[in-house]
Amino acid sequence: MVHEQGAKLCFTADDRIFLGEGLFETLRVVNHKPCYPKAHWQRLKKAASFLGLALDVSFEVWLEKLNECIKLHALQEGGIKAILCSGRAPRGLSARSKETSLTLIAFQYIRNSQPLSLLSVPWLRDAKNPIYQLKSINYLEAIIARRHAEAAGVDDALFFNFQHHATETTIANFFIIKNDQLLTPALHCGVLPGILRERLLCLGKKQGIHCFELELLKADLLQADAAFTCNVLQGIRPIRAFDNHVLNVNHPLVTKLNHFLALDEP
Q: Which of 18, 22, 119, 129 qualifies as a FRET site for 98, CA 20 to 30 Å off?
């Protein structure tokens, strides 16, 4: 496992990373500590197993290396990007690498909690495509969608699948609030199993909030009392507008959820 200050990774021409085969996790660091390290480790292990990538790192070693990285860079607030590279292999799509590498990159990060605007992505996703449930290094679709949104003067884009069910934004899961209930797209819609998404569902249920994972249409978002995106780095960000439809950014349930997260044991 390697610690890097910034993007200094070097690859040979036959490295599988040039075919987009690789995984990553982005952890938030608060008060010199990594947030939700076990959940990130578990998700990375599961994805690596699916792709057949070796990740022979116990949770104890994972946590030790994260803390070493934080200490090495004197990181009080920010993040760590953990990149699992697939390594070198013979030419061919089905070829497999025998050696993988895990690199930790520390970075500074200041949260932007300002409400954001979204628009619908002008193409649809296949919910059965397994890549959408992996934290893959291949972000080309998200890059194209984000640039499309910004060219239209909007902050981010929301994907829909072939059944016209909402899935996620380019970098975050999303929720809507309706009648004080918390609703989010089900994983089978083609959604990344986000760490903060899962925490919000668990915390909400513990606090007696009705939480549902289901199929959400565009009409559901337009009729929502409020909506927000979430990921571990950004936290909760209210959605102020979707496809030019204005939404409430001051819903009391969002305030409660932020309070629950502040008390959550990372």
A: 129
Residues 177-226: pLDDT tens digits? 999 999 999 999 999 999 999 999 999 999 999 999 999 999 999 999 99
Radius of gyration of the chain from its Cα atoms, rounded to whole angstroms: 19
What secondary structure does DSSP assign to 202-256, as a single string? Answer: HHHHHTT--EEEE---HHHHHT-SEEEEEETTTEEEEEEEETTEE-BS--HHHHH
| pTM greater than the 0.85 cutoff | yes
3-state helix, strand, coil in the chain (%, to 5): 30, 30, 35
Domains in the chain: ranges and CATH: 2-108 (3.30.470.10), 116-263 (3.20.10.10)
Q: Do residues 108 and 81 touch, judged by C-beta distance below 8 A?
A: no
Is residue 23 a contact partner of residue 30, using CB atoms and an 8 Å limit?
no
